[in-house]
Amino acid sequence: EGGAQHGRNIQGTQHTHALAEGGDSVAAPEFVDIPTTNMRKVIARRLLESKTTVPHMYASIDISLDNVLSMRKRLAANGTKISVNDCVLRAVALALQEVPAANAYWDDAAGEIRPSPAVDVCVAVATEGGLYTPIVKDANRKSLSEISADVRRLAGKAKQNALMPEEYVGGSFSVSNLGMFGVENFSAIINPPQGGILAVGGGRQVTRIGADGGLASVTEMTVTLSADGRVYDGQTAGDFLEAFKANMEDPTMRLSIV
Length: 258
Fold this sequence. Notes:
The chain is built from 6 helices and 15 strands. With 258 residues, the chain is an alpha+beta fold. The strands form 4 sheets. Strands 5, 8, 11, 12, 13, 14 and 15 form a 7-stranded mixed sheet that branches. A hairpin with a 5-residue loop joins strand 14 and strand 15 (215-228). It starts with a strand and ends with a helix.
């Protein structure tokens, strides 16, 4: 019959042919089945669980990066390399310290909010095998330089698949940054049992009205908080984002270097 299909597997490649009218075989596009790694299976299961069982709420805010970029330039001139993401992690850690209600999680068994015992911030690191979220532990007690060193060390181990479980299991909050890929804004999925994750977009030039009333070109980025609605309410989300914004926009005073 016209349109009947048959197929065969050859060395992992599925070759499918359709019988055209008249009995001629017409080759369809070929494809290769790529085995799913155990890590990607775990990621798929956990993200599905998160999106179907955790009531996500979202809130976004624009952040001026001009002072962060100026600070980075000054530090680079003195031989100190600090990334924007290092500043984000430090600003997040301080905001969680300033707003303890944001540094919490939902205890399913007890049906209660539990405060996290430490400010341990996870940073998403993409590898060929999947996404790791290594932990910068006690991030609120570390300087920018210490956070930067931790991130470089952990990211290097993640890409070599050499992280120990205690280096990526746990954490009280996560940060996912897609700004380096040209993404301006997005919403991330919460990493259970954490109460929140901050999605960080890339910097962009925008025109604003300056303090003198004139037009000024500034560099801004948009961040979006995904929060567990059982842990955060609107005020907690707003307080956290307000504290984060203040830390990022006054980095010299708020984000200690050493």
